[in-house]
């Protein structure tokens, strides 16, 4: 990711509607589908500047892994977590078979070999452990936002399923999300593509709009896994180790 993107992320990820709503969705999914007992051994892989760490730390003993030194410095201030240098697929500083839960939020799309990355995470899971990940969806939404963040791809449910199964993991549940705002986001990105605009859509909106967008997006925590969401800006999946 460009250095400017990390600086911007650290400045806004506490308050931007997308990050706030995604944290609420992730917390709900862990509560409903994964956290059957307290004090899980958890690792967030690719933690960035660490905005997810306070939420994840509520569920157990937390380790975070991040390749970028500047991002690690931000992350170390966010929560009671061990923040380690590491990268996918060959540099994860975690013991094999040590995790109850691995979390990877919008990371897989940055890795050249996504199957190798998934296999690497799988080796760190205890038998029956869970792996929660999110990725950007719908290749038709490709825009300067993806280029700024050095994305290699956007996924469909079919391509993500193929990568997970090729890594030998079993899908427990999968869903598109950020569905309710899809028409707005798609319209903005397609218009920018048509006009050749290189503007990246990650700035902070006004307070009232930020709160409204968060409320709409976060409402999907009540829908995911309960109602089919056939398309969305992102995909979320929970997989199980063998």
Give a written overview of the molecule:
The chain has helices at residues 3-12, 17-33, 53-57, 69-75, 114-123, 144-148, 157-166, 182-195, 207-218, and strands at residues 40-45, 60-66, 82-85, 99-105, 125-136, 170-177, 234-240. It is α/β, with parallel strands linked by helices and 242 residues long. The chain has one domain: Vaccinia Virus protein VP39 (Rossmann fold, 3-Layer(aba) Sandwich). Strands 3-2-1-4-5-7-6 form a seven-stranded mixed sheet. Strand 4, helix 5 (114-123) and strand 5 (125-136) form a beta-alpha-beta unit. Helix 2 (17-33) runs parallel beside helix 9. The longest helix has 17 residues, at 17-33. The two termini are 33 Å apart. The mean pLDDT is 92.
Q: Termini separation (Å)? A: 33 Å
Rg computed from alpha carbons, rounded to a whole number of angstroms: 17 Å
Q: Approximately how much beta-strand content do the residues carry?
A: 15-25%
Number of domains: 1
Mind telling me the CATH class?
A: Alpha Beta
**pLDDT < 50 runs, ≥5 residues:** none
Shape: globular
In CATH terms, what is the architecture? 3-Layer(aba) Sandwich
Give the count of helical stretches.
9
Structural class assignment: alpha/beta
Strand order of the largest sheet: 3-2-1-4-5-7-6
CATH superfamily assignment?
Vaccinia Virus protein VP39
What is the CATH topology assignment? Rossmann fold
The topology string of helices and strands comes to HHEHEHEEHEHHEHHE
């Amino acid at each position: 990711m460009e250095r400017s993107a990390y600086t911007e992320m650290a400045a806004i990820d506490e308050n931007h509607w997308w990050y706030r709503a995604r944290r609420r969705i992730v917390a709900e999914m862990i509560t409903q589908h994964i956290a059957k007992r307290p004090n899980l051994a958890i690792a967030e892989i690719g933690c960035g500047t660490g905005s997810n760490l306070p939420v994840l730390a509520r569920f157990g003993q937390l380790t975070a892994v991040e390749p970028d030194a500047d991002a690690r410095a931000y992350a170390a201030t966010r929560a009671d977590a061990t923040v380690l240098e590491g990268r996918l697929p060959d540099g994860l500083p975690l013991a094999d078979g040590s995790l109850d839960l691995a979390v990877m939020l919008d990371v897989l799309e940055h890795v050249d070999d996504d199957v190798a990355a998934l296999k690497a995470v799988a080796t760190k899971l205890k038998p029956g452990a869970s792996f929660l990940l999110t990725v950007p969806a719908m290749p038709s939404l490709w825009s300067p936002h993806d280029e700024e963040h050095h994305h290699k791809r956007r996924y469909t449910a079919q391509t993500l399923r193929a990568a997970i199964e090729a890594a030998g993991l079993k899908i427990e549940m999968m869903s598109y999300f950020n569905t309710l705002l899809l028409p707005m986001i798609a319209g903005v990105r397609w218009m920018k593509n048509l006009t050749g605009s290189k503007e990246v859509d990650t700035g902070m909106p006004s307070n009232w709009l930020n709160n409204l967008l968060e409320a709409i997006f976060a409402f999907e925590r009540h829908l995911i896994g309960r109602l089919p969401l056939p398309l969305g800006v992102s995909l979320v999946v929970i997989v199980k180790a063998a």
